């Protein structure tokens, strides 16, 4: 897309230069008005024919031939590039819609099941909890603030609170699901979500290699705490972005997401209780 836009910018500069050059040229050679001269340039480069108004002098005709050689390709190039950008934008929007469907499935199957315990492992979580209680009245500014606050939060992991056996069991049950997500080519459109999947899958691999967590050495605990922290941080950031997407595009899904907010102790799927 970037290459197409750069090419279009160059073509537009050339097109505008030819418009000015051609208009001035016809005014001087043909003695026509500004409007007639600009009309000459457009119909020449668009190859639609002159109709009732056309160059009458030999110099004007020669100038028109030169303008055709220089301008027709530029004009058609501008039209072709604009069309290509529109088609590419539509294709990108379609891929992003599919990607957000994948993200939604991920949070339903895995993400929400990790966010709740991860936040319980975090001794500093109460300092950010209120920023993650999303309501139906949130605006883009509220989501922006929540995203900024989540980036600045110190995602701590108190390993004394972590039940590694339960975490391992949960992730092992979801391992095939995570593998299928990683194979999805649409993930190339979203680097941050790809990083999140890799972080979660890496944590699953680390836990899978441990047959027992009894008497785990301190170095191993520190290492696992780092893996949990990495996945935890990415999970929160991506969750906020996904909630914003639901708010702006799918209010009915957003309503359910609010009622199942893993950070809201008062959250209830029963609408009447909210």
Describe the structure.
- With 274 residues, the protein is mainly α.
- The protein has 2 domains: 2-89, Helix Hairpins (Orthogonal Bundle); 94-273, no CATH class.
- It contains 10 helices and no strands.
- It has helices at residues 2-30, 34-46, 58-121, 126-129, 140-152, 164-173, 175-182, 191-208, 218-249, 251-259.
- The radius of gyration is 30 Å and the shape is elongated.
- The chain starts with a helix and ends in a 15-residue tail after the last helix.
Secondary structure elements and pairings:
Elements: H1 2-30, H2 34-46, H3 58-121, H4 126-129, H5 140-152, H6 164-173, H7 175-182, H8 191-208, H9 218-249, H10 251-259
Helix pairs in contact: 1-2, 1-3, 2-3, 3-9, 5-9, 6-8, 7-8, 8-9, 9-10
Using brief descriptors, characterize the structure shown.
Helix Hairpins; 2 domains; mainly alpha; single chain; 274 residues; 10 helices
Please indicate the count of domains. Answer: 2
Bin the strand percentage.
under 5%
User: What level of helicity do the residues show?
Assistant: over 70%
Distance between the termini: 45 Å
Query: Pairing-aware structural class of the strands and helices?
Result: mainly alpha
Mean pLDDT: 84
Number of strands: 0
Radius of gyration using CA atoms only: 30 Å
Shape call: elongated
Taking pLDDT < 50 over at least 5 consecutive residues as the criterion, the unreliable ranges are none
Q: Please describe the biggest sheet, giving its number of strands, its sense, and whether it closes into a barrel.
A: none
How many separate helices?
Answer: 10
